[in-house]
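TASK: fixed-backbone design
INPUT:
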């Protein structure tokens, strides 16, 4: 099973549309950005596994908007010239699909 992970930027974007407390932010950042296991927060904060999982899933759900059919989100590291080409592909694809 692939671990749920977000970059710090993706995490901040997800939070922008949510109304969550500091504890939820702390837990979700620890798991999604820092890669800490959920059980660490269960033990450290005395919360149930379900409560920790719910905090993580709330932010995760907000961070992963639906993609258009036939599209896939990828994260890669590329040389600058290749990254430029990929960004152009993204712009072209967005124009073709419309808003």
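OUTPUT:
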């Amino acid at each position: 099973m692939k671990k749920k992970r977000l970059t710090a930027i993706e995490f901040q974007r997800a939070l922008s549309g949510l109304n969550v407390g500091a504890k939820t932010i702390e837990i979700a950042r620890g798991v999604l950005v820092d890669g800490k296991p959920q059980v660490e927060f269960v033990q450290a904060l005395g919360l149930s596994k379900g409560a920790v999982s719910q905090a993580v899933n709330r932010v995760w759900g907000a961070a992963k908007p639906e993609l258009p059919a036939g599209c896939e989100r990828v994260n890669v590291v590329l040389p600058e010239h290749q990254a430029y080409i990929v960004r152009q592909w993204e712009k072209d694809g967005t124009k073709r699909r419309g808003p």
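COMMENT: Residues 8-63 form a domain with the Arc Repressor Mutant, subunit A fold (CATH 1.10.10.2690).
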